[in-house]
Amino acid sequence: MRRALAITAVFFASPLAHAAAGAAFGETSRVAALGDAVTARPGDPGTLELNPAGLGDSKEASFLFGGHADYVSQWMQRAGDPASQDRSRGFGGFYLAAATPLPGPAWARRVGVGFALDMPAQYLLHLDIPVRADQPIAPTYDSRPDRLAGAFALGVKVLPRVELGAGFAFTPSLAEPALITYHAGRAPNVNGNVEVRIDTTLDTQVSPYLGLRAQPFDWLALSLVWRDAQISRASGQQTTSAAGISAAGPFNFYQLWDPATVVVGTAFFPTKRVSLSLDVAWQGWSQFHDGFDQPLPGAIQFHDTVTVSSGVEIDLPRGVALRGGLAFEPSPIPEQTGETNYLGGNALTLALGAGFDFRALAKLPFAIDAHVRLRGEAAESATKIASSLPDADPQLAGAQIDNMGYPGFRSQAFLMEAGLTATIFIGGRR
Amino acid sequence: MTVGIACVACSGPPKTVPAAIVNATPSSVCAGDHFTTSIHLDSSGSSPVLTLVYSPPDPDAGAIHFAWSFSGAVCTGIAASPGDWTTLGGQPATSCDVLIDPSSVDALGQITGTDVLLSIAGDRPVDVTLVVTSDAGGTLTARRTISITQLDDAGACPLPKAD
């Protein structure tokens, strides 16, 4: 019966992927290959942001680091245009994470702590705020991979088969007040009379997360995780002062990295060598705000999604593991009939990976994991409703349309990713 | 607008950025214009140096160069009479979204002047992109959209007639 359950369990993969500390598309190779469906599995440093409770199951101190390289092929084509606009780009990132059970007596060893840090390859923080509301934006790909993220977590084995965990994810925000003044006669060239003072500080936004993991039977584990939304801002007051004129205006740019999420997970262990896991995640995309921190109007408001992800892991002799996953992730973006042109369709993800544990291979305390991941989106199409579009020039008679997506458009994206993780085990099993 | 903190080192002082200015007259045509209205794009207000406050052109600032591009299918041609014309390539204009006046196109087929005359099909807005490059190597891109004016309830164009 247990085997039948396991074999018939559908396995899907990564919804909106998290790195070790929460940045998009930068999970450890093991997590990526398992489709992020790891909340009910025993924890490791790479899963502390996905379910901190797993740290309560830490058997030994370990440290991991790795990286990933991604390429997004994305196009958008306006209806009737002879060619599409190519929005393809590459990105990548690095991460490190460490976790350990506390030393000391038995009760202390029930507590595991860990931290993780994600470092994008190009930007520490990238907020892309379009000047025009109708500029095409892909919320999944445009900025999400480009941010520094950190996470700290603690997990406790409160009962022999029950673990609780809590943590904080850190996301940078930018405070950038600017003062622009004009001092006539200071320089021979008028441009030299302009003085710009920018006082920039990089603050952190803290997002809590909680997790529960229970394994009532050797063959079954369950999990429940809540993560708060992760947001960055770039804000400040820009003051322009020239002679007797002084103009001050606040700016508040906003980027939602991940909405509030609730995950229910399960893992099956039908044999000692085979495990399957299934996570179902609700994500509160209806709280999405535009780049100026304004909620989207009702008709074009994003809707909450339920994603399903799962993975399978097969442990072979001599420390070799094979992993795989398959996924479906519905798009939160409604049909773009109005002013905005958000890009993103329902996505299907396939992930494959392998792991080599050199403790079993050569009694060396480290492991290497690798993965590849393909994420394909269904083509998104939209037909604009002219009456839903704003008048581009109220000074002119009639209603003007200048929307970049008018009269309609199609778009599609495909992500290819490869990554590698090295794990070093320190101090042996406790 | 992009706010980014890049982890790359600066490789030198930033190049002087030119100013790129595009004026379109008219800025909108009615839906279904079918290349009837001649649109004038004027970038003569551009300059080699981006200035916060207007200052006279610096004679030593060097020249600036223009590169225009347009969304949609771009053809070159002019109507012999309304509804009776063919593009320079012998292509019927019904397959074009933008029709560039031959006087705005150089010998290599590029659109590099300060002024451009064009007409559009009028079934969708046309995005105009102007890249201005200075002799100092600085570039700036200006974008402007020629909008479509919806016909009124009687099916008439609400825009005033051109002179």
Describe, in plain words, how this protein is organized in 3D.
The complex is a heterodimer of chains A (430) and B (163). Chain A is mainly β and 430 residues long. Chain A contains three helices and 22 strands. In chain A, a hairpin with a 5-residue loop joins strand 14 (261-268) and strand 15. The longest helix of chain A is centred in the N-terminal third of the chain and has 7 residues, at 2-8. In chain A, 46% of the residues are buried. Mean pLDDT of chain A is 88; it is low at 1-15. Mean pLDDT of chain B is 80; it is low at 3-11. In chain B, a hairpin with a 4-residue loop joins strand 9 (126-134) and strand 10. Chain B is mainly beta and 163 residues long. Chain B has one domain (23-149): Sandwich (Immunoglobulin-like). Chain B is built from no helices and ten strands. Helices cover 0% and strands 33% of the residues of chain B. Classes of the chains: A mainly beta (430), B mainly beta (163). The interface between A and B is large, with 41 and 36 residues. Strand 21 of chain A pairs antiparallel with strand 10 (139-149) of chain B.
Report a brief summary of the structure.
By secondary structure, chain A is mainly beta.
Largest interface: A-B, 41 and 36 residues
- Assembly status: heterodimer
Helical stretch count of chain A? 3
Distance linking N and C termini of chain A: 34 Å
Q: Which word captures the global form of chain B?
A: globular
What is the CATH T-level topology of chain B? Immunoglobulin-like
Overall shape of chain A: it is globular
In the CATH scheme, the class of chain B would be Mainly Beta
Mind telling me which CATH architecture of chain B this is? Answer: Sandwich
Poorly predicted runs of 5 or more residues of chain A: 1-15
| Radius of gyration computed on alpha carbons of chain A | 24 Å
The CATH fourth-level homologous superfamily of chain A: Outer membrane protein transport protein (OMPP1/FadL/TodX)
Order of strands, main sheet of chain A, comes to 1-3-4-6-7-10-11-14-15-16-17-18-19-22
Structural class of chain B: mainly beta
Mean pLDDT of chain A: 88
